[in-house]
Structure formats: structure tokens, C-alpha cells
Design a protein that fits this description.
The complex is a heterodimer of chains A (227) and B (753). Chain A has helices spanning 8-24, 111-115, 123-137, 141-154, 159-171, 175-187, 193-209, 213-225, and strands spanning 95-99, 107-110. With 227 residues, chain A is mainly alpha-helical. In chain B, the strands form 11 sheets. A 5-stranded mixed beta sheet of chain B has the order 11-1-15-25-26. In chain B, strands 3-4-5-8-9 form a 5-stranded mixed beta sheet, with no helix packed on it. A 5-stranded antiparallel beta sheet of chain B has the order 17-16-30-29-28, sandwiched between helices. Classes of the chains: A mainly alpha (227), B alpha+beta (753). At the A-B interface, helix 1, helix 3, helix 4 and helix 6 of A face helix 3, helix 9, helix 15, strand 25 and strand 26 of B.
Chain lengths: 227, 753
């Protein structure tokens, strides 16, 4: 004990040491009870998903929990040939655009064809479809898809759900998916001309987007058959 | 002892130094500096840990929500079961959220509301009218119209961090009436007036303990308890004892009583289930009562507060009497202190513990396993175990429940009928016919699943389950229709090793020329091998790949009889494609992932890919319906009403090592596998084993009509059963089979003879 000489200098340095220790363990001022919006710390930050077309919701916030990889897709991405822009001008008021296709041909169906589609026998399905439409109009595609999937769970064989899912995927530039959804939709509507017309229109537009002009021509013939 | 003189010898030389005032002063200075440094250090520690602390919140995994709407068909008992699992209380008269009242016509449900990925579902008070388990009308008690009621999704599990702490965060305004009073009355009466430690509390506790000659009260304040749990380890060390009080004082200086209380409420340890530690009152309420904390009543509050003293000693599941005694003591304290009246005390004490009736321990382990596997492909482990992500899955709790029961009960019956079958294992996979959502998964013989998931990790030969794929490849070629005659005569094929492969029929007989559909309904090996060889092994394999079996399969003729090792999950994927009109959709497990605050991170969209043409698949579906109606799978009608259409196929492998059954109804696709762990022969065929599990399961699921959507290219034709020739409708022995118009044979006007 006696060997330790406490000099004024040591007092001061000890005090500094104490302050330093305090600072080291210092507070990272944050909420006391988490407000359930758990923010990732830097060390937990995840790689940012670069490809956002697999159904990953747009995430513009500062927080950083993002999927490592895009969501489940079992098949390879189809490389989409960029298309010359087709500008849709002066639509006749008797027509309705059912899918605005980026850099592709928009899908236009005569309004009377649309209106003639039978309403689903489930009121809730019609509600969900309407909600999906309004979300789509606000450009909230993922949210619209979620509504449609909910409708599909309630009415798994409602062709309108397939028509809308297909149109949505086409609007997202996912033409291969759109084509397949429309093809499946077709299996639900034998002898229902209006739907068949509708689905073949979607298939033609998808094939056009994919650069499959032969396939497109075939689909157009089919669509015209059911006009 | 012998050392003592030696040490004392040196001492006399320095007595003046030891007792000098200067030395004492120096020592005091050093000690006080150490003290101050320690205090500053502790203070920093407190602030750092308290403010920087974030609990690791496990990801929460939810089942699909039950959505009630007009016209919806439920299974018998399903609604009661699902509401019970959600912690709803069945009462005489509904007054609060989370309650259900049974009426003559159905039920009145007071739903809780939930924040879904697509927005908030409000709480609703709704009368649901039911007829034969079908929702026939729904109206809000307020009179407003109601198209659908989406109940909260069941929380089915979590993905825990390595220390296995689980909690559900709550805030002070989530507390039910009487909670704070009860907690403070029992644990810390002077909480709002003391400085973190309470000498008065210690004195009172000591006095109470002396009076009772036992430890009945602890003198620790809530603040001290928090310091103990939060900052210090469980070890009773001197250092811990020394710093506990100063830390509590410091905590009290820095933070408001409310802040400390809120952290305490979320930190306190209240139980242990296996490896999972239950922390905080929020999760404890869910765990013990199946209800959110805000819903519980005073007798339940009293139990939770009583548990603080010893969660394992008073464990209400294991020691209900002790727990009741403790709860009643807490209620007595409340009455003594005037918080409740004597009458109220008596009323509450008379109530049962009201523990949740829902299954608590490791629900749905096999399903959770696939959820984890899928998530690990998309998120790092740390994000899953500590950020409170919300995972919405396709799991259907009712289907899963029935699948678990079917497996356990049927295995028991099989063991009774055949004598104990050693190490008999099993797996069930159930998916939704149109969406491909994976609804249920049973990973072993009793739904317990310890380590090996037989639905995913076991690839066994599939036997006759492969035959529908041969038929589909044949129908796709355009060269066959359902009545095309196939030779069932003996067949011998030279193998690459020079040996001869001679497959035989199960009954060891040949049946001459049989129509193609009969080759499937009777599962004739010789005819199907011949058909497969005619179509080409390559074509059959290609078809199998299209339907979701990705691995390469050796191209031996024996593959035609199912010498192909695939898992029950993959088998279900193949049958899903058949059920889905030839469209492959990957079995979907996770649908959406959101952050804790509800912000959407991922949506896994519904996708399809055409794997076979619609009309060919339609014919195959018809054949498989015939298998169930009159073929090897007809035993399912011991379980199902005859009018319920199903399409199915049995499978049995060499020496009955594997018993398979796969098929679909209007709404569900299901695959069952049974077999021994060591792959040794069993007494079971597909029809005597797996069929029973499948049948019992389907029997308890909601009945949705099997909708036949006939493609325009398909027509029905009469054929002669014996010769397979197309015949006019007036002929005897005719059977109607669908055919693709372009490949149908011309009509034989002699009735096919």
C-alpha cells in the first residue's frame, strides 16, 4: 500500500479515467420500451435486395431489414427484350385499358365486355377486387396483389381473380407470369366467351412483351374468335 | 501456525508507518476515489444498459387467419376449435372483446381486430348464423352490414434467439384494470415514494418474516428486482449484493417511475417451457391464458402477479393447487388493503384459474421447420431472432390439427390390427388445391417431430404413385385415349447388368388387353410398364420434371413402377399439379413478412406454370376419380360420403416397405406416407395403411364440392368395358369416359363386340 504514491497528477488522471470509463459505457439514447418498430443496428444490417421485382415491397424507409434474396421464385427469370414504346392515344370511350404495360402494348378491352362479366356470388370477393383496383390505381401493386390473393382464398376458382392477377403482373412487366396466370384462368372458363376473350387479350399482350410474335398472333386469333 | 512467528517478526519494524494519520488519510482517499470511480462507472452502466437496451424480439409466425363470410362451409367443430385456439372465452353474454356467445342460430363473436399486412381489421361484434356448419348470414350487432369477418391469425410459434428468451412487449396503457394496484400491493407498496431502495420495506418484510418465522416477504423493491434481472447475473455474489442497492438508487435518479415500471413489466421472468423462457407480463398472459394482457380479469391478474415470486414453484400447469392458493393470497392482500371488497374477493377466489385450453407446447413443429427453412433462404438468422418480424404463413390450424389426429389414431389402429409394427413412421402433406398453399405438415408418427422431418428429409420409392405420370405423358402424346387397349401380358426386360427384369402384377396374374383407365384403376404393373415403354422413358421423366421433381432420375424401366426416390413433399407437389388442372404452383409456405410495426418487407406472390395441357389432365383426373370409385383407392369411401368426389392413387413398394396414398378433393391435395424408419418390410399396402390416414383426415375437413370444369375440347363417349371400343349410348356394358374430341375413336355400331 505504502508504495502507491497518490500525487495530484494521479488524482486528475484517475478522474479522467473515470470520465473516460463512463463515456465508454455511455448511453446510446433510445426508447425505453421499444415501440415495436425495431430498428436494425448497423452490425445487423442486411444486404439490400437489388432486384425488387419478385414481390418484395418497396422499402423507402431508413431502416434496413430487407430480404437477403428476393422471394420465392422457382423458375429462372425470363430476359425481357426491351420493346419500342407503344403510345396509347385517343382511346375510344367505349374501351377500357385493363393493363398498362410499361414499354409494351397496353391491354385494351371493350368496356361492354368488362361490364358483362358476371359478378362473383361472394359479396366479399367483389369488395376485395374493388379494393385491389383502387390500390392498383394508386400504384400500390404489392398491396393490390395481396388483396387478390385474399380473394383467391375465398373464391379459389373465380376467374376474375386470375384476370386481375395477370393484368397486375403484366403491369409490373412480369409478362411470363402474366401469360401463365391467364392460361390458368382460361381453364376455369370453358364456354364463357367474354372471359375467354379477356384472357386471350392478356396472353397476346404478354407474348408481345416477351417478343413472341408468333404466339401473339395465335392469341389474337383466339381473342377475336370470342369477341 | 509455524509461519506465524515469521510474519510477526517483520511487523515490529514498521508499526509507526501502519498507524500514521497520513497513511490512513491516503487510504481513505484511495478508497473514496475507488468508490467514486465505481459509482461513475455503475452510473454509466445503468444508463447505457437501460437506454441502449433493446430486447431481442423473436420473429412471430402466424397461421392463416380464419375468414368468415356468407356461404362459407366449415367443418364440424372447426369454429369452436379455432376460437379456442385464439383464446376466445365462451360466455353466456358477450360484453368484451375476445368473447363468444353461442346462440340458437349460431354464434355472437366479439373479435379483437388485428393489424394485417393489408391494413387494420377492426374489432367487430358480429352474429354469425350457421346451418350445418355453413355460414348462412352475418350481421353486426350494431346493424351495419358485414361481408366478411377476418379473425386474428393464430400465433403458432416464434424463431427464438440463442438465449431462448421470448416476450411480447407491452406498454403501460396495455394493462388491464387493477393490474398496477395488484402488482404494487404485493411486490412493492412504496414504489411511488421510495428512492429505488426502501429501508421501510426491508423493515416491514423483516418484521413479517420474524412474525411468521419464515421468509414470506422480500424487501427488494421493483427497482432492485429489475436491477437484479436486468444487469446482474443470477449468481449470489458479494459484489452483486454490494452494487445492487447503489444501482437501484442510480436508476431511480435517472428515470421516472413509469419508465422503470414499464421495463420491469417486460423483463420479469414468469415461466419456462422447454428451452423457451417466458419474459414479461404480455407474453405470460398469452402463454397462460391465451389472451392479450389487456383482456384479463382481476383473478388472472392476481395469478400473474403471484407468479413473480416463483414461476416454477407456482407453475399453474404443474401445480394448480399451489397456484390457486397463491392467487387467492394475492386477492386477500387486495381485500385487506381495500382495493377490492370482501365480497369481490370471495367472488374472484371462487373462479377457476382460467388457463388457456389451447395446445401450448411446440405446436406444429414440422410446419415450423419448413417455415424456418424457407426464411433462412431470404433472411439472416439475426434478423429472424431479434427484430420482431411478423411472418404470415399458409398454415391452416384446423387442417393441421386433423392431420395430427389422423396420423396418431390410425397408427394406433394399424399397430392393433397388425401387431406392433416396429419404428413405424409417417408423414402427411396437405395443400390447397387451387392456390398451392401448404396447409399442414406432419413430420413423423406422432406430430412431435424431433429432428428428422419425414415429410421433407426422407426420399422413398413411390411405387404406383408414379403411374398417373405415365398416363399423363401418354395422354399428352395424343396417341392414347382412356379406352386404348394396353397389353397386360407378362413382360421381361434385359437389364444393363445382363439380368432380366420381370415385373409382376400384385395378384401375380395377367389380365390380357385392358383399357387404359383400367390399367390405372387396378394398378396393373405389367400394363403400365408396357404403356410407359411405349410412350418412352424420356417422356415420362420429362413429365415428372415438369410437375416439380427436379432431381435427375436414372432412366431404368423400373422407374415406371416407382423406383424413384422422392419425398412426400415432392409427391404432393406432383399431385398438386394434377389437381391444379396441369398448372404447377410451388407449395407456398410463407406468404408475407412484415416488420414489427407492420411495414411490409416481402410478399410471396401466387404463381403458376403450365406443366401439362388442360384436357389431358382432365382425363387423368377422371381416371383417378375412377381409382377412388371402383379401383384400389375405393376404401376411402369407408370414411367419406359416396357423393363426395375425390381423385386418388395408392402406392406400395417392393416387399411393402412403403405405404403411400395421394389424391385430392374439391379443395385439398394430400399425400400420406407410412413406412419403417429402417426401411424394412411392413404388413401395409397403400390401401391398407396410408389410405386410412388420408380417409380420416379428409373426413374431418370442410366439404367443398369437387367442381369438374370440362374443357371445350373434351367430350364424353361410351365405351365397351370389355373391349374399350367406343359405342352408342344404348349398348349394354357401356361406361362413359371423357376423351379429347380429336383423339376419340370412331363409334363401333356393334356395341363394341
Amino acid at each position: 500500500m505504502s508504495s502507491i504514491k497518490i500525487t495530484p497528477f494521479k488524482y486528475i488522471s484517475l478522474c479522467f479515467l473515470a470520465i473516460f470509463l463512463g463515456a465508454c459505457a455511455g448511453p446510446g439514447y433510445g426508447p425505453i420500451v421499444e415501440d415495436r418498430s425495431v430498428q436494425a443496428r448497423t452490425s445487423q444490417r442486411l444486404p439490400v435486395a437489388t432486384n425488387n421485382v419478385h414481390g418484395t415491397a418497396a422499402n423507402n424507409s431508413v431502416t434496413s431489414t430487407k430480404p437477403l434474396k428476393p422471394a420465392a421464385v422457382e423458375k429462372p427469370q425470363v430476359y425481357v427484350q426491351p420493346k419500342a414504346q407503344v403510345t396509347v392515344t385517343a382511346q375510344s370511350s367505349s374501351n377500357e385499358v385493363i393493363a398498362v404495360v410499361p414499354k409494351g402494348k397496353d391491354v385494351i378491352v371493350a368496356k361492354k365486355q368488362q361490364e358483362a362479366l358476371p359478378t362473383s356470388d361472394q359479396a366479399v370477393v367483389e369488395q376485395l377486387l374493388a379494393k385491389a383496383d383502387s390500390l392498383k390505381a394508386q400504384d400500390k401493386m404489392t398491396e393490390a396483389i395481396i388483396q387478390l390473393q385474399r380473394a383467391q382464398r375465398i373464391a379459389p376458382r373465380e376467374p376474375k381473380v386470375y384476370a386481375r392477377l395477370s393484368a397486375l403482373q403484366l403491369s409490373l412487366g412480369e409478362a411470363a407470369r402474366a401469360e401463365q396466370l391467364a392460361l390458368k384462368g382460361l381453364t376455369l372458363v370453358p364456354n364463357q366467351k367474354r372471359y375467354q376473350h379477356f384472357f386471350w387479350k392478356l396472353i397476346a399482350a404478354s407474348r408481345s412483351y416477351l417478343g413472341d410474335s408468333q404466339g401473339e398472333a395465335k392469341a389474337i386469333i383466339q381473342a377475336d374468335k370470342y369477341k | 501456525m509455524s509461519n506465524k512467528p515469521a510474519t510477526s517478526q517483520s511487523k515490529p519494524n514498521t508499526p509507526s508507518k501502519w498507524f500514521s494519520w497520513v497513511g490512513l488519510f491516503k487510504l481513505a482517499t484511495v478508497l473514496s476515489v475507488i468508490g467514486v470511480v465505481t459509482l461513475i462507472y455503475l452510473d454509466a452502466q445503468i444508463r447505457h444498459r437501460f437506454e441502449g437496451h433493446r430486447w431481442s424480439l423473436p420473429a412471430k409466425v402466424y397461421a392463416r387467419p380464419l375468414e368468415l363470410f356468407n356461404g362459407q362451409q366449415l367443418a364440424a367443430g372447426q369454429l369452436d376449435y379455432e376460437l379456442t385456439q385464439l383464446g376466445y372465452r365462451f360466455v353466456k353474454r358477450v360484453t368484451d372483446k375476445g368473447q363468444v356467445q353461442k346462440t340458437n342460430r349460431g354464434m355472437i363473436i366479439y373479435s379483437r381486430g388485428f393489424r394485417f399486412t393489408d391494413g387494420d381489421e377492426q374489432s367487430h361484434l358480429v352474429e354469425v348464423t350457421l346451418q350445418k356448419n355453413k355460414v348462412t348470414s352475418m350481421r353486426q350487432i350494431s346493424g351495419a352490414a358485414m361481408a366478411s369477418l377476418r379473425l386474428e391469425p393464430q400465433l403458432v410459434g416464434g424463431i427464438y434467439p440463442s438465449h431462448n428468451e421470448d416476450r411480447e412487449l407491452i406498454q403501460l396503457n396495455d394493462l388491464p384494470n387493477g393490474f398496477i394496484e395488484t402488482l404494487l400491493m404485493v411486490e412493492d407498496r412504496d414504489y411511488y415514494s421510495h428512492y429505488g431502495v426502501s429501508p421501510w420495506g426491508i423493515a416491514r418484510a423483516m418484521w413479517a418474516n420474524i412474525k411468521a418465522a419464515a421468509v414470506v416477504q422480500g424487501g427488494s423493491t421493483l427497482t432492485q428486482q429489475l436491477v437484479k434481472n436486468f444487469y446482474l447475473t443470477d449468481q449470489q455474489t458479494l459484489w452483486r449484493k454490494l452494487i445492487e442497492a447503489p444501482m437501484a438508487l442510480l436508476l431511480n435518479v435517472h428515470y421516472s417511475k413509469e419508465e422503470v415500471l414499464e421495463v420491469y413489466l417486460n423483463e420479469v421472468f414468469l415461466g419456462q417451457v422447454g428451452k423457451r423462457a417466458i419474459h414479461g407480463f404480455g407474453l405470460a398472459s398469452r402463454f397462460y391464458f391465451g389472451q392479450p394482457l389487456s383482456e384479463i380479469k382481476l383473478h388472472q391478474v392476481a395469478l400473474l402477479v403471484g407468479l413473480v415470486k416463483g414461476p416454477s414453484y407456482y407453475n399453474p400447469h404443474r401445480h394448480p393447487q399451489r397456484a390457486t392458493k397463491r392467487r387467492n393470497l394475492v386477492l386477500s392482500v387486495l381485500a385487506q388493503q381495500g382495493v377490492i371488497s370482501e365480497l369481490q374477493k370471495a367472488q374472484y377466489q371462487a373462479l377457476p384459474l382460467d388457463l388457456s385450453k389451447a395446445k401450448q407446447v411446440s405446436r406444429y413443429p414440422a410446419y415450423m421447420d419448413v417455415v424456418r427453412r424457407q426464411l433462412q433462404q431470404h433472411y439472416p438468422a439475426s434478423a429472424l431472432s431479434n427484430q420482431g418480424l411478423r411472418i404470415f404463413t399458409s398454415l391452416d390450424p384446423w387442417v393441421q390439427h386433423q392431420a395430427d389426429i389422423a396420423m396418431i389414431e390410425q397408427i394406433k389402429k394399424l399397430n392393433q390390427s397388425y401387431g406392433k409394427i416396429p419404428t413405424l413412421e409417417g408423414a402427411i402433406v396437405v395443400s390447397h388445391r387451387d392456390s398451392g398453399e401448404l396447409l399442414a405438415l406432419v413430420g413423423d408418427h406422432d406430430g412431435g417431430y424431433a429432428g428428422h422431418n419425414w415429410a421433407l428429409d426422407t426420399s422413398r420409392q413411390v411405387g404406383s404413385l408414379l403411374k398417373p405420370v405415365i398416363h399423363l405423358a401418354a395422354l399428352e402424346s395424343g396417341q392414347y385415349h382412356l379406352a386404348t387397349l394396353i397389353d397386360d401380358g407378362p413382360i421381361a426386360l434385359p437389364q444393363p447388368d445382363g439380368s432380366i427384369w420381370q415385373p409382376q402384377n400384385y395378384d401375380r396374374k395377367s389380365h390380357g388387353k385392358v383399357p387404359m383407365y383400367e390399367a390405372l384403376t387396378k394398378s396393373y404393373n405389367q400394363a403400365n410398364v408396357r404403356l410407359g415403354l411405349q410412350v418412352g422413358l424420356g417422356k415420362v421423366m420429362q413429365q415428372l420434371n415438369q410437375m416439380g421433381v427436379e432431381q435427375t432420375i436414372p432412366a431404368y424401366p423400373s422407374m415406371l413402377l416407382g423406383a424413384v426416390e422422392i419425398s412426400p413433399m415432392q409427391v404432393n407437389q406432383v399431385y398438386q399439379t394434377i389437381a391444379g388442372n396441369g398448372f404447377y404452383s410451388p407449395l407456398s409456405i410463407v406468404q408475407q413478412v412484415t416488420k414489427a410495426n407492420g411495414q411490409l418487407l416481402s410478399n410471396f406472390p401466387f404463381l403458376v406454370r403450365q406443366a401439362a395441357s388442360n384436357d389431358a389432365v382432365y382425363l387423368l383426373q377422371h381416371e383417378m376419380r375412377m381409382v377412388a370409385n371402383e379401383g384400389t383407392a375405393k376404401g376411402v369411401y369407408r370414411y367419406l360420403p359416396k357423393q363426395q368426389k375425390v381423385a386418388a392413387k395408392t402406392g406400395t413398394t417392393n416387399d411393402q416397405r412403403d405405404s403411400w396414398f395421394a389424391g385430392f378433393s374439391g379443395q385439398y391435395v394430400a399425400t400420406v406416407w407410412l413406412g419403417r424408419e429402417d426401411s424394412k418390410p411392413t404388413p401395409l399396402t397403400g390401401a391398407s395403411g396410408a389410405l386410412n390416414v388420408w380417409g380420416q383426415l379428409m373426413q374431418h375437413l370442410a366439404y367443398t364440392p369437387y367442381e369438374d370444369i370440362k374443357p371445350e375440347t373434351v367430350g364424353y363417349f361410351y365405351v365397351n368395358r370389355a373391349t374399350g371400343a367406343a359405342i352408342p349410348t344404348r349398348c349394354p356394358d357401356g361406361v362413359a369416359v371423357p376423351m379429347i374430341n380429336t383423339s376419340a375413336p370412331s363409334i363401333n355400331t356393334n356395341c363394341g363386340y
